[in-house]
Design a protein that fits this description.
Length: about 500
């Protein structure tokens, strides 16, 4: 007769040790950090995320050069060999500085919103399955293939735009499928590589690439579009991604045991740290328990509201600055990209601070909620007041800087909370939460495009107020129901024979 029992924490542990589910006596002394292989893995994922996010958002800045808004009555893919004007307002004063001969399209704000959002249709389909698949066949294969396919598709984007609006949107959807596999599949890596006491900082390093990616894309995309034409922005990012996908295949390994260059001391440190959290045997997903879990739903809903904030910041910052202050595409690229440098720096700093607070006996759930509140509430508030600052260019840019910077603190909060509550199933749960969150990435451009076309005068105000309302509701739900203890259904089930 088989009886299933569940392993539980030792009764004499401190509260912090209960949160982390560790017996520190079993963990060898910590080995070097910054020059270690595990930090090297974090920096490789960081680079991968820069490339993936850069490819994801490059059209957000090139759209300013791709669109001629003088004829919004046309809803098709009419291409003219002309010079664009501001896609949400009057003529672009810097149009004469754009290269002659590049295609320009008559896409209305609604069409632009659909194009922006189409990449996320594909991402929704693959974020959760890719997390589960990576947990089975390995992150190396899943993310490596996804990065290579994403790079090939971004190379083909100018051709797809010339072939027609339908072809462009189909290619963007397929591109989203590869992007979703890259973003969703990477989380399985941290089940095997990330010691719990270093979880915040390692994940923050890896995830901060998602903030630096928009900076690189928007900054260089604006410059490239003005100097040699917007198609070359896609060619450059696609070519660079193909090269980096080959580096990924060579340098990344799914676990410390299979890595050929890791030191014995570091390998023992990582495997011992994770011994009580990740089982060597594969266990079935407790789907019913996951669906009934309020902590899981709090993560999912808060990720959705956070993604709404990030999508507005990434997707509409160039368009907002262009429409309100009417600056040329090169300067727009510089101004729109700089806030993401703050996001990158704050994200890494937030991970260091979060792990520092844990060493000072702060409860893990407290640290996660502090990071999530600081990343959501001030950022959405600053964005909501932007319509009242239209007369002040400096104040608007300052608020965007602060908002983007603080938003990245969530990388040490809600973004990695699934690793805390269910380490054995974290790749699947993080894929599910990101997949649900990307509904926001689909809805934001569609809803925002509709709002802007229906109410040009107050459109931006309505977009930012809606962002604040959604962000606040998701945050409240997480504050009430969010947890950081390993859930009972996520603990190892040990079978004993009587």
């Amino acid at each position: 007769m088989d009886t299933t029992t569940k392993l539980s924490p030792t009764a004499g542990e401190s509260k912090y040790s209960q949160d982390m589910q560790l017996d520190e006596k079993l963990i060898p002394r910590k080995v070097q950090s910054l020059c270690s292989v595990r930090y090297g893995m974090a920096f490789i994922v960081h680079l991968c995320n820069i490339i993936l996010m850069g490819q994801n958002v490059i059209m957000n800045i090139t759209m300013v050069a791709m669109v001629n808004s003088t004829d919004h009555q046309s809803q098709g893919n009419v291409s003219t060999e002309g010079l664009p004007v501001n896609s949400f307002g009057g003529p672009n004063e810097a149009a004469n500085s754009l290269p002659a001969g590049v295609p320009v399209y008559n896409w209305s704000p609604e069409i632009q919103g659909i194009i922006f959002g189409s990449i996320n249709y594909g991402m929704i389909l693959t974020l959760a399955p890719s997390g589960y698949l990576a947990g089975r066949v390995g992150t190396k294969r899943v993310v490596g293939v996804a990065l290579f396919v994403s790079s090939l598709l971004i190379l083909c984007t100018p051709l797809a735009a010339d072939l027609g609006l339908v072809v462009l949107m189909v290619s963007r959807i397929v591109h989203g499928i590869s992007q979703g596999s890259g973003f969703g599949g990477q989380y399985a890596l941290w089940e095997k590589w990330c010691p719990p006491h270093e979880r915040s900082r390692l994940c923050a390093i890896a995830l901060s690439g998602m903030a630096l990616g928009p900076f690189v894309a928007i900054l260089t995309g604006g410059f490239i579009s003005q100097v040699i034409g917007w198609p070359f922005a896609f060619y450059i990012f696609g070519g660079f991604g193909c090269v980096c996908s080959l580096l990924w295949i060579v340098l990344v390994y799914d676990d410390p045991v299979s890595h050929p260059w890791i030191s014995i001391s570091e390998k023992e440190y990582i495997t011992s740290s994770l011994a009580q959290q990740v089982s060597a045997s594969r266990q079935s997903l407790p789907i019913k328990d996951i669906v009934r879990s309020l902590p899981v739903w709090s993560v999912i809903l808060c990720c959705f509201s956070y993604q709404w904030l990030i999508t507005v910041l990434v997707m509409y910052t160039p368009s907002y600055i262009s429409s309100v202050f009417n600056i040329n595409i090169r300067d727009n690229g510089i101004v729109s990209s700089l806030p993401f440098v703050f996001a990158w720096a704050f994200g890494i700093l937030g991970g260091q601070v979060a792990d520092f607070l844990l060493t000072k006996n702060f409860r893990l759930v407290t640290v996660r909620k502090i990071a999530t509140v600081l990343g959501n509430l001030p950022s959405s508030t600053l964005v909501a007041v932007l319509p009242y600052l239209r007369s002040s260019y400096i104040t608007t840019i300052t608020f965007l800087f602060i908002s983007c910077g603080l938003a990245s603190l969530c990388q040490s909060g809600i973004s990695i909370n699934a690793l805390d509550i269910a380490p054995r199933h974290s790749s699947f749960l993080m894929g599910v939460s990101r997949g649900f969150a990307h509904l926001a990435a689909v809805l934001v451009p569609t809803v925002s495009g509709f709002i802007l076309s229906q109410d040009p005068e107050f459109g931006w105000r309505n977009i930012f107020f809606l962002l604040f309302a959604i962000n606040t509701l998701g945050l409240i739900f997480y504050i009430i129901f969010g947890e950081a203890d390993v859930q009972d259904w996520a603990k190892e089930r040990k079978v004993t024979r009587l």
